[in-house]
Amino acid sequence: xxxxxxxxxxxxxxxxxxxxxxxxxxxxxxxxxxxxxxxxxxxxxxxxxxxxxxxxxxxxxxxxxxxxxxxxxxxxxxxxxxxxxxxxxxxxxxxxxxxxxxxxxxxxxxxxxxxxxxxxxxxxxxxxxxxxxxxxxxxxxxxxxxxxxxxxxxxxxxxxxxxxxxxxxxxxxxxxxxxxxxxxxxxxxxxxxxxxxxxxxxxxxxxxxxxxxxxxxxxxxxxxxxxxxxxxxxxxxxxxxxxxxxxxxxxxxxxxxxxxxxxxxxxxxxxxxxxxxxxxxxxxxxxxxxxxxxxxxxxxxxxxxxxxxxxxxxxxxxxxxxxxxxxxxxxxxxxxxxxxxxxxxxxxxxxxxxxxxxxxxxxxxxxxxxxxxxxxxxxxxxxxxxxxxxxxxxxxxxxxxxxxxxxxxxxxxxxxxxxxxxxxxxxxxxxxxxxxxxxxxxxxxxxxxxxxxxxxxxxxxxxxxxxxxxxxxxxxxxxxxxxxxxxxxxxxxxxxxxxxxxxxxxxxxxxxxxxxxxxxxxxxxxxxxxxxxxxxxxxxxxxxxxxxxxxxxxxxxxxxxxxxxxxxxxxxxxx
Length: 575
What we know:
Blueprint: H1 9-12, H2 15-18, E1 22-26, E2 45-48, H3 51-62, E3 66-71, E4 83-84, H4 91-94, E5 99-100, H5 110-128, E6 129-139, H6 144-155, E7 162-167, E8 183-190, E9 210-212, E10 215-221, E11 223-224, E12 237-239, E13 246-248, E14 254-255, H7 259-267, E15 271-272, E16 285-289, E17 302-303, H8 327-338, H9 349-359, E18 365-368, H10 375-387, E19 392-397, H11 403-408, H12 412-426, E20 428-432, E21 436-440, E22 448-455, H13 470-482, E23 497-501, E24 507-512, E25 522-524, H14 528-534, E26 539-544, E27 546-548, H15 551-561, E28 564-569
Parallel strand pairs: 2-19, 2-22, 3-6, 3-18, 7-17, 18-19, 24-26, 25-27, 26-28
Antiparallel strand pairs: 1-22, 4-5, 6-8, 7-8, 9-10, 10-16, 11-14, 12-13, 15-16, 20-21, 23-24
Helix pairs in contact: 3-5, 5-6, 9-10
C-alpha cells in the first residue's frame, strides 16, 4: 500500500501514545441540565480545548463506543489562520509551535504541518469508533490527496469505503480561476468495512409513499440510461391496455425491460400510466415495492443542491436520498440562531442531517472533534426530533481557532458552539425577513460543558519526583468507570472504597495503591473476604498494584459468595 512521507512523520506517528492523559473538568454553569442532574460524560457533551488532548481524555469512557464520526478539519487553504500548537519537544517542531500556518509559496512546510496535525488525531478517532462505526471527513482539493493517504494508513485499507462529491456553492464568473470549483469531498471510512451498517442508506417504508393492494410502492423510472444502439431489444412501443394509448421509449433512453418481460410487467399492473395520474407525468413509470426482507440501498455518490424528494424521469432509481444545501444555507441558519455572523462558511444543516442519518440511530454516539459552530449537534437534535430516537453528540472545539480570535478574546466554544446548542434545545426568537419576530420551536435535550484540564500524570510514565496521591488516582478511576465525578466525602483510603453505582444490583469500586515505592498493595484471597463482608453490592471492581489471584481461585470465590468481581491493575503502571 502506498504511504505518504512528510517532515516529522517518524515522530508524529507514535505521538498519540506519549500525549499525557488529561482530566475533563465540568462547568455546571455553562451546562444545560435538568434540575438536580449533575454533569457527566455519558450524555451530550461539549468539550472546550485541544481536540488531541480531549480525544485522549475520552478514550477510557468512549473507546470503541462511537457509531458515527464527522470532522471538518482546516482545509489548509492559507486563508484560515490556523495555528500549529502540538507541544512536541523535538527540535524540528519547535519553530512550528504557536505559529500561524502560511500560504502556498510563503510557507514551505505548510503541508507537513497539516499532516503532522492530522495523523495523531485520526489515529485516536479510529480508536473511538465502534467495530461497526463509520467516519466522514470533509476536505477540498488543497489536502484531498494527502488526507486520502493518511486515512488509508490509519484504517489499514487501500481506498475509502466511498468518496462523496458535494456541491457547496453556486458557480460564479467573478473568480479569476479558469474553472469555477463548486464542490468539496467527503471521505467515508469504516473501522471494519465488513461490519459497518449504514442504516440511512437502506430504503425504509417511508421511502415508498404510495399504496395499493400489494403494499407500499414508489414511482420509479421505467427507462434506463442506455441508447437504442446499445440496447436495441429494449427499444419498442408499449400500450396502456385500458386506454389503448401507445408510448415510445425516450430517444436517449430505452425501456427497463425486454419485450417479454415488459408484457409481464404490464399484465401484472406494475406500470403507472400518465393518463391515469394527476399531474404532469409524461411517460409511464414503474412500481417499486417495499420488501423488508430485501432492503434496497440508496445511491449517494454525488450530492447536489436539493431540498425535497424528486421524481425526475432522468434517473433509473430516482428516490432522492441526500438533501444537501449550499454553504450559504449554513451561514443563514447560523446567523438566525446566534443573531450575528460568526463563521464564514459553516456547513449546511441539511448536509449534516444526511450524514448523521446515514450512519447512526437509536441511542448511538455521534462525535465531531472539529466542532466549529456545532452543526453536527444541530443535525443530531433535528433528527432526534423527527424520528423520536436518542442519538447523543460529543463536540470538541478549541477556545480560539485563530490568533485573531484570541486577540479579540472570542471563545468560540463557549460563545458560539454552546450558545447555538443551548438556543436550539431551549428555543429562540429571530426576525423573519428582518421584520417579523418568529419563535423557533425548542428541540429539547441537555448537555454537559467540560474543559480539558491539567494532565493527570504528566508525560507518559514520567511522574516527576512525586507519584500521584491516592485521591487523584481514585477520582480518575471512578469517572473513567462510571462517567461521573466521585463524591469526595465517600472516599475512604483505609478501606480502598471509592464509590458505588446502583444499576445491575449495585457496583462498588475500590483502589489499593500507595504513592511510593516502599510497598505494592495487592488484592488476593486474603483481602477479598473482608471486602465482601462489609459490602453488599452484587458487583465489585477492584484496582490494585498487584493481583495475586489465579482465575480459577477467583471464579470459585465468586461462586461461593454470589458476587461478580473484576480485578484491574492501577492505571499506567505507576510503579
